[in-house]
Amino acid sequence: MSKSKSPESVKVVVRCRPMNEKERAAKFERVVSVDVKFGQIIVRNPREASANELPKVFTFDSVYDWNSKQIDLYDETFRPLVDSVLLGFNGTIFAYGQTGTGKTYTMEGVRNDPERRGVIPNSFEHIFTHISRSQNQQYLVRASYLEIYQEEIRDLLSKDQSRRLELRERPDTGVYVKDLSSFVTKSVREIEHVMNVGNQNRSVGATNMNEHSSRSHAIFVITVECSELGVDGENHIRVGKLNLVDLAGSERQTKTGAQGERLKEATKINLSLSALGNVISALVDGRSSHIPYRDSKLTRLLQDSLGGNARTVMVANIGPASYNVEETLTTLRYSNRAKNIKNKPRINEDPKDALLREFQEEIARLKAQLQKRSGKKKRRRQRRRAGEGSDGEDLEEGETEEEDDEDGDDKGDYWREQQEKLETEKKEIMEDHSLVAEEKARLLREKQKKMEDLKREREAGEMLAAKVKAMESKLLVGGKNIVDHTNEQQRMLEQKRQEIAEQKRREREMQQQVESRDEETLELKETYSSLQQEVDIKTKKLKKLFAKLQAVKAEIHDIQEVHINDRQELEQTQNELTRDLKLKHLIIENFIPLEEKNKIVNRAYFDEEDEYWKMKPITRLEDDHQMMTRPLSAVGYKRPLSHHAHMAMMLRPDMRYKAENIMMLDMDLPARTTKEYQEPVIAPKVAAALEDALRDEDEIQVDASGFHSSLGQTPPASSSSSSLKKPKSGRPRTGKKSSTPTSPFSPSSPGSPLYPQSRGLVPK
Ligand code: ADP
Ligand code: MG
């Protein structure tokens, strides 16, 4: 097994789904054509179909049209990847594309239909079949299932679905999800069960499953560990990890009009996806030294799959209909870029975190323990055989003297014999009339105890054996644990299919090469018999080149347009976020007391690990030792005591109120600065005037000067007299009396000094 060190490209395949019922019913035009032989996708623009615009052509590693079978994709594209995972490489399959184009169909497919099963179930079959056919290898297979939604990681296999998990990084093993559960699976059925549980949990938290699944990323992880005796006589462990990723829908989330929660959601949903795009761009750019893996959970978690230690396949899913053309083109451009990512996969040999090693060690330890137990047992047996038994054991048992009689049958016999022997002894005692009643009872008790001990020991031994068995059963060995239901013929068939797939792939590659060389060599090969012929051929070539130039130009134009759109969208998002921030600032500046604000600012810190702002817990200052240590006088007592109490206690230990709490621990409430509202007292004269005034339809003039003075505030010169007065003739004036404590009509002009005013720290 050679370790591959040379970089290899991310493999990109495109799959176009068939038109669905609705599209057929609405008679949508099909704008996508698929050239399986050349590995090309050709997209016509429906708007200017007749005009001069040329159809756009994209070339990929392979392409699949609407007639493609799941098994074809598996054999040609995914099987080689899973095979390398079984060899100890990391492998990743991404399904990318607009919602409804077949990502989940490709990854999971239709569960109960073997024909339409997706990559995930097919890989289960593949992995366990491979193990069952292996020889002299030990395998351990485990699975995890997680989901990323709005930049939060949820373990789909955990009981507590409300919990959010964190990413952690270790220098030796890289980024991992802390506390992610993983289940050891021993068969296809078991791992399918794990997948089903995860899928059920996936829909549990979601109110609208369609929307949820189109906005979240689901990652199914299968880890295959394999232990094999190396040429050096040591056991070596290889660990392959397969990430099966069903990405969120790639369509643009409409951000227009989004605010608050909705805006946050919109920006977060696409964060992982746009970060993925940015990582891809940075990787293929070649100029950028910084790859923004840390920008999102998805890219951080799958860092290895993008330019690192993994083999990666990206399946781009597209729809054929005309109304999807924009998204289809975006998807094709996106995946076209991904083709150029170079990975450096290598076999993971003897990694530190191999679970298989742990299992092997644990089994060895338990076995040693069991050995020791049975050793003890044997010694005792031998002792008994030698006639050391004090209570008259007979030695009629005819056991074989094998040193290694470890098999369960023999053990069972041993236990049974012991039990029977004790029973007969018990009976003998009962029947022995020579013994005194007391003596008899004692002997019987003894026997009873012995029997119980025997039982306990037996149970402990059995438990240990069961534990060893359970652990061993988790380690899979070829042809033993798993029913191999594939016979030789089937294996041949598989091999043939694989060969055909390989053949097809090579053909396609050659065809692509021929195509590109054709143009280069055309000229060299030609010998012109006449000038006219030369002109013709060259004209033809010129035309061809011109067409190509036009296509490239159109492509550049398109990409520029896409960029402009992206930029506008980003600017819009930025504007919205800035507005949001400004609002928050205003609220803080105007409504949060400065000291509170400072307290919070002092407590806040940025956690580099989680990339999140966090709050330090409220603690006393560290240097304030006085507060932290217990006062001397209180050592050994419930609470501080005065010297007097101390002395009194020594004199009279039964002192009353000893260690009683004499301190007041009620909260110290601040002095009130406000008053209860009181019904205004209105002089009868005023009441009468009021009554009078209300009777006629005219407005009432209010003078609030008395109100301000009653609160002890001096209003700004302008406020009371000029801004509130609306000089209109013929109106009765009320509330003129400055002695009235509060006016029944409070002024409500916005300029009133009673309302808080901005401290003016934020520019408006
Ligand atoms: P996505 O996960 O990308 O949102 P789905 O996988 O849910 O899309 O596919 C949407 C619908 O299209 C499903 O009903 C699925 O069965 C159907 N579909 C997708 N791809 C194919 C295909 N290649 N052949 C047949 N049906 C398909
Ligand atoms: Mg889906």
From TrEMBL:
Q: Which SMART domains match?
A: KISc (SM00129)
Positions of the UniProt region annotated as Disordered: 369-413, 706-764
Question: Taking the first listed entry, what is the main subcellular location of this protein, grouped into a coarse class?
Answer: cytoplasm
Q: Where does ATP bind?
A: 97-104
Q: Where is the Kinesin motor domain?
A: 9-341
Swiss-Prot/TrEMBL keywords: ATP-binding, Coiled coil, Cytoplasm, Cytoskeleton, Microtubule, Motor protein, Nucleotide-binding
Supply the name of the protein: Kinesin-like protein
Provenance organism? Dicentrarchus labrax
Q: What gene does the UniProt entry assign to this protein?
A: kif3b
